[in-house]
Amino acid sequence: MRTTTRSSRRVAVVGVSLSDCGRVDEATPYALHAQAARRALADSGLDRSLIDGLASAGLGTLAPVEVAEYLGLRPRWVDSTAVGGATWEVMAAHAADAIAAGHANAVLLVYGSTARADIRARRRTGNLSFGARGPLQFEVPYGHTLIAKYAMAARRHMHEYGTTLEQLAEVAVRTRANAALNPEAMFREPITVDDVLDGPMIADPFTKLHCCIRSDGGCAVLLVAEEYVRDCRKAPVWILGTGEHVSHTTMSEWEDFTVSPAAVSGRLAFERAGVRPSDIDLAEIYDAFTYMTLVTLEDLGFCAKGEGGAFVQEKDRLPVNTDGGGLSACHPGMRGLFLLVEAVRQLRGEAPGLQVRRPDGSLPELAVASGTGGWFCSSGTVVLGRS
């Protein structure tokens, strides 16, 4: 294995893949991890012996130790950061730093979940509990669920800026339109704003179609140091800049419900990449609920605070969640890694559905993936580019 002790190396994504996704009744989460990892490695064209770093979360008692053993890997660099849906963007940042510093040469980020199949088989219930210890003890007795926290934040944005239910519904409609073009998406039937508004209420103002789907699935992303790129099967996609931020866990400590932690992680990622939001060709944004897309677009700087509602209604706005997102394509739990996979596919010109093109017909040059964790508790943002 080649090694280096150089203090700064460029870092590229050279392999991405999904496992089987959607309705996967017969696989285990470990099997989905392995399937995604094998496919990403094949996508890269590299040998598995090169992998000396592993990042994984959400499975087992000692993640990523158990996942490493299942995959037959013995990594010398590991990360098990767990900050909800933003985990994978934060892990990508950590992996890129480790590779740049010479602490690892090739890091595999891998995830798999059978959240949907487990419920169907009655291995778990549909409720997600984060427990009632620590700071959460002051909220849990009042039935303040995860979705209720997002819903309350959405209501505050509506109160402060006049954001409408129709504007929030437009996020779901546009995302479903993208999913309709993606053969890998779980739900592809077109929907209308009225369909969203007329659905069963889940947590005011969110009806069913304001909320992400529940699916099975996994994916993997392989990052390597620049000197290995020449051995890869496909052109690299470079990590240009990253940022991470945590803000709160109890709602009483959240200073402004209309500002997500992406306001910090996004600014850091763009500054470190040396680009501006206006330079970005497409955005992959965590969308467990429609409000997340709208407010993250504001906080990343694609429009001013309070203008997200009008922005998502614009006909020729920035392409967002091009695969159909968590609202329609797949959402097996912590979806952040799927954002990176879709961003890389777009930059390569390999999107299975909607392929973004620049005005001159060329492939996109820059993409941003921004994950959100908990109930706007954490954020990780990654800027990726073809050069």
UniProtKB/TrEMBL annotation:
InterPro entries for the chain: Thiolase, Thiolase-like, Thiolase_C_2
Name this protein carries in UniProt: Acetyl-CoA acetyltransferase
Thiolase C-terminal domain ranges (all copies): 243-386
TM regions (residue ranges): none
Source organism: Streptomyces tanashiensis
Domain of life where this protein originates: Bacteria
Name of a matching Pfam family: Thiolase_C_1
